[in-house]
Amino acid sequence: MAINENNDTVIEKNAFMNVHFNLLYINDQNLMCDCDVMWFVYVRHDKPFRTQGGKCSKNNKTLSELVPRDFDCIDNVASIRSCNVSQSVDLSCEYNYLTTNLTRWIHSRSGILIREMNIDFVDKDTNTLHFSFCDHDDSGEYTCMLETDYSLLPSINISVHLIVNGLPVVLNRHTEEKGDDLILSVMFYSIPYDFIIEWLQGPDNLNEDPQYSILVNNMTVKLKQYNVDVTTDGFISNLTIHNFRRRPSDVYSCRISNVYEEVVEQFILGPATLELERRAYCDTSNSIELNCTLQLVGATPVSWIHSIAGETIRSLQGRHVNTSNILTIPFCNSQDTGDYTCRWKTDILGQTIMEKSTTLSVSGPPFFISQFTTVDGGDTVFSVTFFSKPYPNDPRWYFNNEPVALGAKFQQTTSYTIVQIRQHRVLVNVEGFISNLTVHKAAYGLYKCVILNSFGEVKHLFVIKQEHNTFSISTTEATTSSETTENSVTVIIAISSSVLGVVIVVICIIIFIRRISPKTSDKYNSTMPTR
One GO CC annotation, please (predicted)? Predict the structure, then answer.
């Protein structure tokens, strides 16, 4: 029997089950000996045979010398998938050589575990991991872990690298005085790696000005993905201002652009440098401190400003500790998302203000904004708008608690939309989602929409019922979130405390009455006339 190993050769698992041979001729001298020959070794390892010609390039073994443990079947070069921010992508997990069962998908970056994927993101029939809306947080390596019923090869891992393309992301910046020079630095990452850097003072481009030096270097940058600290390949751009002299309100800008979009990082150089991290991250129910530092004698902090899309939400008082103005946000929730501007007075009259902003991103379970139903001829359309950070999985629709089968009867669409949410009593417009289920000739019963992200899920119910020969639709939100639970517990505790207080007061009154009753009786008896 002879075999040629090339890129077109696929050895199926039943190819050698009933073939009897003693000698195998190998025409190629250097064999890949990868998982394509796994089934051959699996079914023949206990049946002696010899080979003529050909050895495995990675371990110099002949095919007859191989044993199943020589095959780790982990992709030596993981496949690469890419998607653009806000687009969908599927990561497949295919293995055709052994019967396998999926145990889990995990997400990591640079060897650091970020999260174990929720099984609801996975198609159980194909082991495919589905992302409805790609985000920068989703970049990294995804490993599909499979288990087998073969004792010599109990598990198989298949890896996929996911690259998410989008606008450049500024991670941090700082200033440094070096002799008579001032260096402005911006740390960022950009996928794709092709980008253009421009430094400006006001409207003037400084890239060719001899008074300035501009450098761009590779560096390892730190970032957070789903609130986990990881590192990745990034960049730093430095603008050196030679013979720098401080002047009030000097404004320098670093403009970074790629094929998707551009971002502008601005430096306002006052009498001193204000230090504040460019980005901050928090999960719901956790707390965070924003620390803003100014090394300037006589400077005093004023209130922080919380805003979103340029609209002021609230004014917040920080703690003044030495040269720092520290703002604590206890128990983050979605209402805390936005820009926080740290401000300092730099003169006695308070007419000169230095300020710098950081962007706080809060991740948590999704929540519904609104729902509505429309009837158009024979079609009924159930719609929900919702907000989710991070991006959600595809909404799931059910009829009488069974997943709907999309086709002529049921049609589903999900897309972006602008939604209005309340942030600390201020209504603001943000990017959200709308999901529609169109039902042709809708039957009576319960229709349910389930929204899921990596932090939790919410459900909304639509009920079609018949009352007195009248067609009616009612809706209700059926969800239990940590916030709701905490609020309920707070109410219960408050009610319990009130009831307990009333009970204690009643008991005290009863005891008091009982104590004074004998004395009153004795006094009354002593005044009674005797006969």
Answer: plasma membrane
Contacts of 465 (CB under 8 A, 6+ apart): 444, 472, 473, 474
- Looking at the fold, whether 371 and 388 belong to one and the same domain comes out as yes
The H or E element spanning position 235 is strand 228-241
pLDDT digits (tens, 9 = 90+) for 332-365: 988 999 999 999 987 766 667 888 999 999 999 9
DSSP three-state, residue 249: coil
Show the CA angle centred on residue 117, arms to residues 116 and 120, nearest 5°.
145
If asked whether residues 477 and 488 sit together in one domain, one would say no
Residue 420, CB half-sphere, CA atoms under 13 Å: how many?
A: 4
- Reading the block at residue 149, the tokens are 């019923």
The domain containing residue 133 runs over which residues? 79-165
Give 297's Cβ-side CA count (13 Å radius).
0
pLDDT digits (tens, 9 = 90+) for 187-228: 999 998 899 999 999 889 999 898 899 999 999 998 888 888
Q: Are residues 161 and 96 in the same domain?
A: yes
| Cα–Cα distances in angstroms (integers) from residue 366 to residues 452, 455, 456, 481, in the given order | 7, 8, 7, 10
SS3 253: strand
CA angle, residues 414, 419, 425, in degrees to nearest 5:
150
Query: How far apart are the C-alpha atoms of 142 and 106, rounded to whole Å?
Result: 6
Nearest alpha-carbon partner for 404 in 435, 365, 434, 371: 435
CA distance 250 to 441: 66
